[in-house]
Amino acid sequence: AQSVTQPDIHITVSEGASLELRCNYSYGATPYLFWYVQSPGQGLQLLLKYFSGDTLVQGIKGFEAEFKRSQSSFNLRKPSVHWSDAAEYFCAVGPILTGGGNKLTFGTGTQLKVEL
Amino acid sequence: GAVVSQHPSWVICKSGTSVKIECRSLDFQATTMFWYRQFPKQSLMLMATSNEGSKATYEQGVEKDKFLINHASLTLSTLTVTSAHPEDSSFYICSGEGTLLREGTDTQYFGPGTRLTVL
Which phi and psi angles does A68 have, rounded to 5°? Predict the structure, then answer.
């Protein structure tokens, strides 16, 4: 069974500081990995995704994530955090299937607080 | 691109009534749509998977007679909470799965969610 662990429930960083959100997954085959962000009372916005190719993936809003197969990790990073980045971040894993119906398993989320 | 809308964004209803939530993919065709439920400060729980023109597949523990899902077209899926009770109060989020030309892989795009409060 697939699973996702986000070890940090809450993280607080100062505006302008760097950020790394951790994500570890358990999956029996090549995973399809995602990071989503959720602002309060909103749906999820896709930040980036990885399924093959370059293990360092660039996303929107200046985020990037690195896939490390040996560590079963897909950590999200941003070199300089902005106050507007305060939100809930979810890592997700799913199968790479053609034809659709790819169920995702989500981590429990990391709440990011940005101090001005 | 890849916009999913939900309507209504919030709804308050009396116990025993039914509520319908619409999920639309606005600029892509979603052969598969997913319905999730999210409790406060928790992750998303998948309720069901629906494919256009066929019956939905429900996750274990989700009552299919209570949460009716219809996927009438490639751009519209509806979730009806029947005979709603206070314990059904939650944040319901849908997603449409699509393959955008520039991306080449299936990706879930999420709606903004619907806050349901049952009195």
Answer: -125, 100
Would an 8 Å CB–CB cutoff place A41 in contact with chain B? Answer: yes
Lowest mean pLDDT of A10-19, A65-74, A94-103, B34-43, name the range.
A94-103
- Is the distance from CB of B56 to CB of B71 less than 8 angstroms? yes
Q: Measure Cα distances from A33 to A11, A13, A21, B26 in Å.
A: 21, 25, 14, 25
Dist. CA A5–CA A9, nearest whole Å:
10
In the predicted model, what is the mean pLDDT of residues B100-106? 61
Rounded to whole angstroms, the Cα distance separating A106 from A25 reads 10
- State whether B43 and A109 contact (CB < 8 Å): yes
Question: Which band of pLDDT confidence, cut at 50, 70 and 90, is reported for residue B100?
Answer: low
Asked if residues A91 and A107 have their Cβ atoms less than 8 Å apart, the reply is yes
Interface of B with A in 78-107 (CB under 8 A): 91, 93, 95, 97, 105-107
